[in-house]
Design a protein that fits this description.
D-Maltodextrin-Binding Protein, domain 2; 409 residues; 14% strand
Length: 409
């Protein structure tokens, strides 16, 4: 893999050259990078190495992640990003987002699979998850007929797939079917009910939200061990949440609301650390006071932390919140799609997701390297089928935003 920047480069210079990194920075501890003015001030004052030291992150691991995102957008050898003249107008269309840490190895596996099987007639466009679900939504804008839909979607998150005004309306018309052929449950997920009983959606993996605790910022408080702890008054304005990672953030909002109601979401909003001008973050004495004591993040990113430091990864006792990685296949193209679905739901792909990305796989033969009784918080299909999730997400966002003392744009 190519190396596109040095650890001595400033954040601003990296973002200017590679705009695709902005979303990754913002999602993983540097929200100010999304704002043009703040990025100008903050980004020019700090190098990549210093920024990662401030967050007690492993620069090599984080650099590898950014290089993968850049590589996925710029590599001329990315065969899945077909040029217009290469598109098979009669073929099936596969569209979606892959988790950034594993996108490149998955595409390499996919390209080998296509070559070995001689698969043809499949137009594939799988972008990095950092692009955001809006990219998929834009491709669906104005579609009223299911024949206009891509034939296979793949992404994490609840909003788009269950919105009654978007893809959700086609689900109600019986357009989709579950083509994943797992004959049993993975031991880690046995009895958790992640497989869709209505056989519309396929779940192949999950993104898990856990805690990263800065022990220097506890100020006499006990390390929080649960989501219930995070909602307590002592954690007000002490927590960093992945607001820019809509898929995971929506899963957090929905689960907190399901378990703790409106009050729980409001408490979560109050726990969010108040925003601070980026220029103050470098030299001000307030920097130490304003650092989050707890950062909520995908399980993968806890592995970027330097061992032996002040940061401690904590698996919530009431469960790491689950954001499923869905596949949504059109029933009328089932025969043509089956080989592609079989590939993405295979053991080899499951091991890449689980072992390289720490996104546990539902494939029954994958060792997810977690105890089978590892606690997880999963919304559940009963809740999903009985709720207008888009309306609930919008309501939760309103409750959260009104309670966050720093205010959300």
């Amino acid at each position: 893999m190519a190396h596109y920047f040095q650890i001595t480069d400033t954040l601003h210079s990296i973002a200017e050259r590679y705009p695709e990194t902005v979303a990754v920075f913002a999602t993983n501890g540097f929200p100010q990078m999304e704002d043009d003015t703040q990025r100008e001030v903050f980004g020019k004052m700090i190098t990549f190495e210093t920024a990662l030291q401030m967050k007690n992150r492993n620069p090599e691991t984080f650099m590898a992640l950014l290089n993968e995102v850049i590589d996925s957008e710029r590599s001329n050898s990315d065969a899945t990003l077909a040029r217009e003249e290469e598109i098979d107008q009669e073929g099936v269309n596969v569209v979606g987002l892959l988790p950034c840490p594993v996108r490149i190895p998955l595409l390499e596996q996919y390209n080998s699979f296509v070559e070995e099987t001689g698969l043809s007639g499949v137009n594939t466009d799988l972008k990095a998850a950092s692009v955001g679900i809006d990219w998929v939504a834009e491709n669906l804008e104005g579609i009223t007929n299911p024949e206009q839909l891509p034939d296979l979607f793949m992404s994490a998150g609840f909003d788009l797939f269950f919105d009654a005004t978007k893809i959700g309306r086609f689900r109600q018309q019986g357009v989709f079917t579950d083509l994943v052929n797992y004959d049993q449950e993975n031991s880690l997920f046995k009895g958790r009910g992640l497989q869709d009983p209505s056989h519309n959606y396929s779940v192949i993996s999950v993104v898990l939200a856990v805690f990263l605790v800065n022990t220097k910022e506890l100020n006499g408080r006990e390390i929080p061990r649960s989501w219930e702890d995070i909602l307590k008054p002592e954690w007000e304005q002490s927590v960093s949440l992945p607001v820019s990672d809509f898929d995971l953030f929506n899963a957090i909002l929905l689960n907190i609301h399901d378990r703790y109601g409106d009050e729980g979401v409001e408490k979560l909003g109050r726990s969010m650390l108040q925003a601070m001008h980026p220029a103050q973050m470098i030299k001000s004495n307030r920097l130490k006071e304003q650092r989050p004591a707890v950062t909520i993040m995908p399980y993968f990113f806890t592995k970027t932390v330097q061992p032996g430091g002040t940061m401690e990864a904590v698996w919530p006792e009431d469960g790491a919140i689950v954001s499923p990685v869905f596949m949504l296949a059109k029933k009328e193209r089932a025969e043509e799609l089956q080989p592609v679905v079989d590939f993405f739901s295979s053991k080899s792909v499951g091991e890449t997701l689980s072992h390289q990305g720490l996104f546990p796989s539902l494939h029954p033969e994958v060792d997810n390297k977690l105890p089978d009784d590892t606690p997880m918080m999963w919304l559940g299909w009963d809740k999903i089928s009985q709720t207008d999730l888009s309306k609930e997400i919008a309501r939760c966002e309103e409750l959260f935003s009104s309670s966050f003392r720093g205010g959300l744009a």
